[in-house]
Design brief:
By secondary structure, the protein is α/β, with parallel strands linked by helices. The protein has 11 helices and 10 strands. Strand 1 and strand 2 form a beta hairpin. Helix 3 packs parallel to helix 5. The longest helix has 21 residues. The protein is globular. The structure holds ligand C2E and calcium ion (CA) (3 copies). Ligand C2E binds next to strand 2, helix 2, helix 3, strand 4 and strand 6.
Length: 273
């Protein structure tokens, strides 16, 4: 695996610290952000633990606001979710990621799936599957190169979740369960969900060296995933020691600052070399 230098793509404007999520100014600005083309996707590579090759790219949203500076998704996604703006924003994210992935394939990069994060609110939109099909058609991206990341919260309405996930699988996209192990305990449902990848939350990964309990949770998640024919990816891998330990537990894929931070699309080309 390659180690990339620490870069500064994630420095955000501190001005926004004083803004609460109910701040009207932020809401007004967020409303205009799509039209003003202020959103941008960064991409973080995921690596195969055995071959060390890039096996996927996670698209992560950034808001480059003319008025607020670079705003972290942690600071605007909750507001976007509350106001429903996440639906058009999320649709933009899917279209942009598909377009970009198709573009990389045209440039001759080895094809890998791009994954996008899906909010609960988007997941429950009745036209979600239709919209995704349309975007795949428009962008001419093969569905197997789009992955949707969902969280355990979908298990709160398991019957709807299973129906939607099956519909998504039937159009050929991949499904990843994000932040696995942190949320609503869905052990009852996980085997009924058609999931391709389990992502171990970075909170466990970061405790792996110091904390015996985190280690056993990780070992359990990996075994569970494998027993259910899912591959398992560890996120938030920051040190060689973490990667080594994860490998001894047969973790399939790695994502984290040790390998690369999320970077602008232009930088991805060089990372495949
Ligand atoms: P997430 O989906 O769990 O994404 C992983 C987060 O961990 C990203 O933060 C990523 O930059 C960060 N990360 C990656 N490697 C490391 C590492 O080694 N150490 C540490 N400490 N962090 C690492 P980011 O980009 O700030 O995104 C935060 C969250 O915002 C995401 O968490 C996701 O829940 C949400 N988000 C981002 N983009 C979108 C989007 O397009 N739509 C929706 N609905 N949510 C998004
Ligand atoms: Ca994610
Ligand atoms: Ca995650
Ligand atoms: Ca998270």
């Amino acid at each position: 695996a390659k180690r990339h230098g620490r870069n500064n793509y994630q420095i955000y404007n501190t001005q926004i610290e004083g803004l609460s999520k109910t701040d009207l100014r932020m809401e007004t600005l967020l409303h205009k952000a799509i039209d003003k083309k202020e959103f941008v996707l960064y991409y973080q590579p995921q690596y195969d633990a055995t071959t060390h090759k890039i096996s996927g790219l996670e698209a992560l949203l950034r808001w480059n606001s003319k008025d607020l500076g670079m705003v972290s998704p942690i600071d605007f996604i909750p507001l976007a979710e509350e106001t429903g703006m996440i639906v058009p924003i999320g649709e933009w994210v899917i279209r942009e990621a598909c377009n970009q992935n198709k573009e990389w394939q045209r440039q001759g990069l080895p094809p890998v799936p791009v994954s996008v994060n899906l909010s609960l609110r988007q997941f429950y939109q009745t036209d979600l599957v239709e919209k995704i099909e349309l975007i795949l058609k428009e962008t001419k991206l093969d569905p197997k190169y789009l992955e949707l990341e969902i969280t355990e919260t979908i298990a709160l309405q398991p019957d709807i979740a299973i129906r939607v996930l099956n519909e998504l699988k039937s159009i050929g996209v991949l499904i990843a369960m994000d932040d696995f192990g942190t949320g609503y305990s869905s052990l009852n449902y996980i085997r009924r969900f058609p999931i391709d990848h389990l992502k171990i939350d970075k909170a466990f990964v970061q405790g792996i060296q110091q904390d015996e309990e985190d280690r056993s949770i990780i070992a359990t998640i990996i075994t569970l995933g494998h027993n259910l024919s899912m591959s398992v990816i560890a996120e938030g891998v920051e040190t060689e020691e973490q990667a080594e330990l994860l490998k001894t537990y047969n973790c399939d894929m790695f994502q984290g600052y040790l390998f690369s931070r999320p970077v602008p699309a232009e930088m991805i080309l060089a990372m495949f070399k």
